[in-house]
Amino acid sequence: MYTINGALGSPYSMKMRALMRYRRIPHLWVHDADSRDALSKVKAPVIPVMEYPDGTFHNDSTPLIYDLEARHSDRSVIPPDPAHAFIALDTNARGRIDPLLAQTGCLEALLNQ
Q: Has residue 51 been placed in a domain?
């Protein structure tokens, strides 16, 4: 079973919790003081930290979402169109495209396909 180590005040923790609930992937939710031990298990000590069923620990919500998509096919949250998927996962909290994406030309290349 997966364990999400996060905090109620963390939007990224809540995003992962909502994703796991929507996708109906069994998991435990550990938050606040009880989740601090997991920070020592990853390179970048930021939440959420997810413990996988095999005992490994991972963090950073976007890579976690992609990894869960590869492991669990039911109730996908990533659009099938590559351009839509890119935009859906790489917008900031205000719904705007990240300026770095625009500067690198990645967004323009996708939109002009």
A: yes
Parallel, antiparallel, or unpaired for β 27-31 and 49-51?
Answer: unpaired
Q: Is residue 77 part of a domain?
A: no
**Does an H or E element contain 60, and which?**
none
Residues 98 and 48 in one domain: no
Handedness of CA 76, 24, 68, 73 (dihedral sign): negative
Distance from C-alpha of 77 to C-alpha of 73, rounded to nearest angstrom: 10
pLDDT single digits (tens) 4-19: 999 999 999 999 999 9
* β-bridge pairing 57-59 and 49-51: antiparallel
What is each CA distance from 24 to 10, 17, 54, 74, 108, in whole angstroms? 21, 10, 19, 8, 35
Global confidence as pTM? 0.72
Distance of alpha carbon 49 from alpha carbon 60, whole angstroms: 8
Task: Look up residue 113 and give its amino acid.
Answer: Q
Segments forming the whole domain that contains residue 102: 82-111
